[in-house]
Write a structure and sequence with these properties.
It contains 11 helices and 12 strands. The protein has 382 residues and is α+β, with helices and mostly antiparallel strands.
């Protein structure tokens, strides 16, 4: 039996391919938007997975160093070590910095830690060049996304830091590249006043004080066989502290910080899918109008409406299928050009394929309605 849809498409093959490519680019953007959301989720959990700790201790009534400001005394890490079940504990700082020295400033998140203690936030698998920090001052490990290279000198505040190591794909929860400093350098940057500020405060008659032993959080690992929730609950009974397990900190990052962006991306994606459906419907309607005389002739010679309707639905499904293929190709060609991480996953593409097929079937009803009401007398000029 002759496939009318195949014959019709082959008759206008060039136009059909260009149309499918146009719709495919729109679907490619849909896949990119989904990939941006996936990338945000990966970025939000990246540092937590690299540090691989079980307990986060932060300032009372705060959500922790990734969600809001937190200050806690550094020596609390020693107090944690005496708690049954605690294996290692270490102090960390997190702060946003603007680095200069390249063609344009680079915004980064700086992680401060003691390189001589046992918890290292730098995952060795991410270190692609150079080495870890080995000194208490003036060394820095940076992400390749910053643009700096090994042995570069970076001026941060009043001091120069030497790049001793490069990491790959290390970013903060907001997608900013990470740099790693010694805790002493990070504390000086975050909690110490500049010389000009100190002089100005003295001239105003204000007391000049700065706690160089303040950090943003204390992180701890557990010994085998101990439950993070029960130990966190025990620590939380102490005053002036808030305690979160690693799972709770992950939830804070993925829900509190990413949720609003996720809703925005989801709404934008839904709008794009609706627009794609409308465009496919309009294209099928236009294609149906262009062959109304042929359809009238087919009806006049006795071809059943079911065969004609099958042709319209098949054309719509084929258009949706090829648009999806072109969209996949387009998204994989451009996703790595985006400034933030884009993660393309097969299940997302499969889900979009199902949506597009359903949307194509829905869009075909526009052409189907036109065929049903077609007048056979048009074929003979009636």
């Amino acid at each position: 039996m002759i496939n009318l849809a195949q014959k019709d498409i082959s008759h206008t093959l060039g136009k059909f391919i260009v149309t499918a490519m146009g719709v495919g680019m729109l679907l490619g953007i849909v896949l990119i938007m989904i990939g941006v959301y996936r990338g945000m989720m990966v970025d939000a959990e990246k540092l937590l997975k690299d540090m691989n700790v079980a307990i986060w201790v932060v300032q009372e009534d705060t959500l922790g160093p990734f969600a809001e400001s937190s200050r806690i005394h550094e020596d609390f890490k020693d107090t944690l070590k005496v708690i049954e079940g605690i294996d290692k504990s270490q102090a960390f700082t997190f702060q946003n910095l603007q680095l200069y020295g390249l063609q344009k400033p680079v915004r980064v998140t700086a992680v401060g830690f003691n390189p001589f203690e046992s918890i290292n936030p730098i995952n060795p698998t991410n270190l692609i060049k150079g080495r870890m920090l080995q000194k208490s001052h003036y060394e820095v490990v940076v992400s390749t996304e910053t643009g700096f290279k090994l042995h570069d000198k970076i001026k941060i505040a009043r001091n120069y830091f030497t790049v001793v190591g490069l990491t790959k794909e290390t970013v903060s929860s907001s997608g900013e590249p990470l740099i790693y400093l010694s805790l002493k350098d990070a504390q000086e940057l975050q909690f110490s006043s500049s010389n000009a500020s100190i002089k100005n405060d003295r001239e105003r008659g204000m007391s000049v004080s700065g706690d160089g032993h303040t950090v943003n959080t204390i992180a701890a690992t557990l010994k085998a066989g101990y439950d993070a929730k029960s130990i966190a609950k025990k620590i939380a009974t102490w005053k002036h502290l808030s305690v979160y397990t690693n799972e709770e900190q992950t939830t804070i990052l993925t829900k509190n910080l990413v949720e609003r962006s996720a809703k925005q991306i989801g709404l934008f994606t839904a709008i794009l899918v609706v627009v794609s459906t409308i465009i496919i419907g309009l294209i099928i309607y236009t294609m149906t109008l262009e062959k109304m005389k042929e359809i009238s002739i087919m009806k006049l010679i006795g071809i059943p409406d079911s065969i004609i309707l099958k042709m319209i639905v098949q054309e719509t499904l084929i258009l949706g299928f090829f648009a999806f293929i072109f969209g996949n190709i387009f998204s994989h060609l451009i996703y790595d050009k985006f400034p933030k991480r884009v993660v393309l996953e097969a299940p997302d593409a499969l889900g979009l394929f199902v949506v597009i097929i359903l949307a194509s079937i829905l869009a075909s009803f526009v052409g189907v309605g036109k065929v049903i009401h077609a007048d056979p007398t048009v074929a003979i000029g009636g």
